[in-house]
Amino acid sequence: MKVAGFGCRPDTPAEALRDALTRTGAQDLAAIATIPARAVELTALAQALDLPLRLTEVRGVTTPTRSERVQALHETGSVAEAAALSACGSDARIIVTRVTSSCGRATAAIAESEETP
Description:
This is Cobalamin biosynthesis protein. Keywords: Hydrolase, Plasmid. The chain is 33% helix and 25% strand. By secondary structure, it is of the alpha/beta class. Strands 3-2-1-5-4 form a five-stranded mixed sheet. Helix 1 (14-24) links the parallel strand 1 and strand 2. The protein has a single domain (2-112), classed as Nucleotidyltransferase, domain 5.
């Protein structure tokens, strides 16, 4: 299964989230994921894509990329990567590291696992 994880700033518009997702090139997603604090921003996208929204804890999740700002705020290197990994299951791996929307307000990453949705 594939899960798209998202990180974003408060009040990020849906267009920025879609842009970040498009930049990952992902297809055949089983779900999208983010932290509980960003549920409002991601709910409309999940509904538009007809995918479940998984809210997940990211603290302590090791990620391939690292932002010092995100590390200080969320105790992980990338909210997008950590959310994707956490929501995808115990054998998950990142197949697309975080990409940033053109406006810089959203990031998306894709994780994949052998688990079924």
